[in-house]
Amino acid sequence: MAKNLIIGQSGGPTAVINSSLAGVIDYSLSSDKVGKVFGMINGIEGLLEENIIDLTSMFYNLPHEVNRLKHSPAMFLGSCRYKLSNNEDEFKTIFDILEKYNVGYFIYTGGNDSMDTVKKLSDYTAANGIDIKVVGIPKTVDNDLNGIDHSPGFGSAAKYIATSVRNVAYDTSIYSIKSVHIIEAMGRNAGWLTAASVLARQDNMPAPHLVYLPEVPFSVEQFVNDVKEKLEEYNSVIAVVSEGIHDKDGNYIAEGGCSQDGFGHAQLSGVGAFLKTVIEEQIGCKVRALEPSVLQRSAGHIASLCDVNEAFNLGTVAVRAAEEGKTGVFATLKRTSDKPYCVEYGTERVEVVANAEKTVPRSWINEAGNDVTEEMVTYLKPLIRGVAQTPYRAGLPDYIDIRHLDVTKQKYKNEDE
Amino acid sequence: MAKNLIIGQSGGPTAVINSSLAGVIDYSLSSDKVGKVFGMINGIEGLLEENIIDLTSMFYNLPHEVNRLKHSPAMFLGSCRYKLSNNEDEFKTIFDILEKYNVGYFIYTGGNDSMDTVKKLSDYTAANGIDIKVVGIPKTVDNDLNGIDHSPGFGSAAKYIATSVRNVAYDTSIYSIKSVHIIEAMGRNAGWLTAASVLARQDNMPAPHLVYLPEVPFSVEQFVNDVKEKLEEYNSVIAVVSEGIHDKDGNYIAEGGCSQDGFGHAQLSGVGAFLKTVIEEQIGCKVRALEPSVLQRSAGHIASLCDVNEAFNLGTVAVRAAEEGKTGVFATLKRTSDKPYCVEYGTERVEVVANAEKTVPRSWINEAGNDVTEEMVTYLKPLIRGVAQTPYRAGLPDYIDIRHLDVTKQKYKNEDE
User: Fold this and answer.
1) Which of A113, A142, A144, A226 is catalytic?
2) What distances in angstroms separate CA A116 from CA A17, A85, A139, A140, B321, one per listed residue?
3) How many CB atoms lie within 10 A of CB B311?
4) For the purposes of burial, counting CB atoms within 10 Å of the CB of B255, is it exposed (0-12), middle (13-18) or buried (19 or more)?
5) In chain B, helix, strand, coil percent, each to 5?
6) Residue B259 forms beta bridges with which residues?
7) Nearest by Cα to B9 from B139, B105, B134, B98
8) What percent of chain B has pLDDT over 70?
9) Number of continuous H segments (helices) and E segments (strands) in chain A
10) Which residues of B touch A164 (CB under 8 A)?
């Protein structure tokens, strides 16, 4: 007999987490093995409060809404940053609720912290003889997950950063005065997004002229010298710096203080603003610091088609894996060729990804620590390809909102009566 | 006999200044009255140095490059912020060069300062019996020009701001904790761009919850109360503030210092960062300040189709006006209907627009000074309509670069040989 499926979303938003959700819904609606599809509102935290919705009723008769979902950024189901304790009561509550909803498949989308949740839950089912398959779907703009060629969400954020650098390069190219633009990219410990800015280079446009990843110790003195050198050759110099750059002793360069998120990670900002002051004081030309901040992780309007499709496919891969009886795994992809770009889907044990971070290999950063190598460019290029067919209404991306869909459903019901 | 045409671009960049240039080139290439089309590099400043290129040779056999130009942001010809003095020698230099190039039509694209240049040059031709028609094409993201329903460039910047607010709204909607996002929009003295953020509202998505235009004195105390009130109803509150908000005595709210641009205008920034600190101290919830800065004015990837087409059309209108013997005028458009949206093209005396600013009427802002009225929404709505068909290559907008086109031309010549 078909068992029900429940899916949750966790961690920070990306442009394509909902593409994976759309993949899960799309596949499940036509699968004999899956009964209803439920959604946890605000991840595992919502599940503990039995905050659950019926996605099958919501989407069954609205296939075009599944397509809208595929192209809507952030998280349709809401998120949480909840770390499962080892409290036996908490696990009991979770599995009592899952039993009540006749859940046989548990899908969780998130980064390395969320994959830790997948691990804990699957370990619990194994230890207690519970027949629920627990499968993860990876996501993160930071691309810092092990066990996968690249993370869903990264390609779209990379496309946003590269597009923004290109826009700024055109914007600044119009004046003949000397200027410096410092763009701060996300990525606390991994410089993948910062590196992706180099994709903006094309034809004779050399921006970004300098990139600084957190994998290499940052020297303010060297930075000033690098900028000076580039200013000799170019009127307008664009430098992209990771939010997490730090000196050789591990001290963050960011001037501002640090706060902490729910997992105890430092939340950084202000390194661009700090370096702006440094350049103003030591070089004295016009300087702007740009911090796209959250704009880079939820830019559904400039999502990578490659990323949207892969995230969707990983959703279907996750359900199929659960149907096949796999548990404690996550859906993944391996690159089999760069040119033409090909990937192979599969699963991998969740231990590979939980609580670990994949940083940029030193050999993919140039010796001076202010640029990346050709190997990195080859790796990055395919990930931003293709323009996602985001639906538009009244001139704006027509994203789906859980409250709005409810209205749609209501309307549908009325029409049906 | 056909006279040559020269065109220059001046002031700050927008997403569609090159659309107007494309219109000028496209129309001129098939006009009997126009000989060659020349471009001034870096506006009037470049002209004074005889820094001139031949756009006819560049584009004559490359019509698809004209289309790329139509969809490339910033300024293909480069800009300047040069204020013509009343120095007779300077005028003599300009008109000697124009005579040398057999120029009969002088087209200048820019904002109110650039229209002052158009006025001075046409006054000089009238006073000295010189047969050169001088015509302006308006542009500015600020929408602060008189004599035109709305400025080319504004619609695309408006679309960028509304899209960004929508993306941020989705990004922040995923958590159940209280948070405030403050987005700083351009517009020193005119709040049009700030106002345009309200277009992000759709369905049940209420963001932006608060908007503050520079036309109404800003009270930090009232702002804190407004945010507190909205936080009672919503988890996540998004406020859009103009960079130019100031208190009832005219003092800018921005914490940072002020610098000046070439025309002596104050350059502001930092009001978002300042208000972030205020909310953190007085309310104590999570706060982010976002300053899209130059990203909002050169976002070719999210240009408004309405804006691109109107800018292109104004380019053709300007050339036609010059051909018809008009001088000291600028190409303009009047709205004849909101629904369906219709405009009528024409020309207007440049005195109407030079050195003046069109601000938002008080009656289009709500009484509390923290939102706009329905009249404003009706005015704004059509301006962001349509998705511009920006060409893409390797996953990124395939903008045209003057250096790159040179390469293309070279290639074309080689193929021809």
Assistant:
1) A142
2) 18, 11, 13, 14, 69
3) 32
4) middle
5) 40, 20, 35
6) B267
7) B139
8) 93
9) 13, 15
10) 295
Helix axis angle, A17-29 to A305-323, nearest 10°: 40
Whether residue B335 lies within 8 A of chain A, CB to CB, comes out as: no
Name A118's Cβ contacts closer than 8 Å, sequence gap at least 6. Answer: A108, A134, A135, A136, A328, A330, A350, A354
pLDDT at site B320: 98
Give φ, ψ of A397 to 5 degrees: -55, 130
Longest Cα separation, chain B? 73
What's residue B182's pLDDT? 97
A142 is catalytic: yes
pTM for the model = 0.93
Interface of B with A in 166-195 (CB under 8 A): 166-168, 170-176, 181
Distance of CA A245 to the CA centre of its chain: 20
- Token representation of residue A416: 């049906």
**Closest residue on chain A to B79 (Cα):** A174
The DSSP output letter for B329 is E
Cβ within 8 Å, pair A204-B404? yes
Q: What is the pLDDT of residues B268-295, one digit of tens each?
A: 458 998 999 999 999 999 999 999 999 9
Query: Is A292 within 8 Å of A272 (Cβ atoms)?
Result: no
Q: Are strands A396-397 and A179-185 parallel, antiparallel or unpaired?
A: unpaired
Residue A257 has a CB neighbour count (10 Å cut-off) of 10
Cα–Cα distances in Å, from B130 out to B5, B123, B124, B282, B322? 15, 10, 8, 64, 14
CA B205 to each of CA A193, A412, B171, B344: distance values in angstroms, whole numbers, following the listed order: 29, 20, 12, 34
* Contact at CB, B204 and A407, closer than 8 angstroms: yes
Quote the CA–CA distance of A394 and A386 in Å, as a whole number: 23
pLDDT bucket at A1, cuts 50 / 70 / 90: confident
How do residues A109-124 score in pLDDT, each as one tens digit? Answer: 999 899 999 999 999 9
Cα dihedral B326/B329/B331/B332 (nearest 10): -130
CA distance B176 to A158: 28
Biggest CA-to-CA distance, chain A: 73
% residues pLDDT > 90 (chain B) = 84
**Average pLDDT score, chain A:** 92
A206 reaches B (C-beta below 8 A): no
Find residue A52's DSSP bridge partners. A40
CB B168 within 8 A of CB A294: yes
For the record, the structure tokens of A330 come out as 């996550």
Q: Which residues contact B6 (CB under 8 A, 6 or more apart)?
A: B37, B38, B39, B40, B47, B52, B98, B101, B103, B105, B106, B107
DSSP codes joined into one string, A144-202: --TTSSS-TTHHHHHHHHHHHHHHHHHHHTT--S-EEEEEEE--SS--HHHHHGGGG-B
Q: Cα A355 to chain center, whole Å? A: 16
Interface ipTM? 0.92
Task: Measure the CA–CA gap between A403 and B306, rounded to whole angstroms.
Answer: 30
User: What average pLDDT does this structure show over A352-380?
Assistant: 95
Chain centre to alpha carbon of residue A219: 29
Query: What Å distances lie between residue A365 and A131, A227, A360, A375, B72, CA to CA?
Result: 46, 18, 8, 9, 31
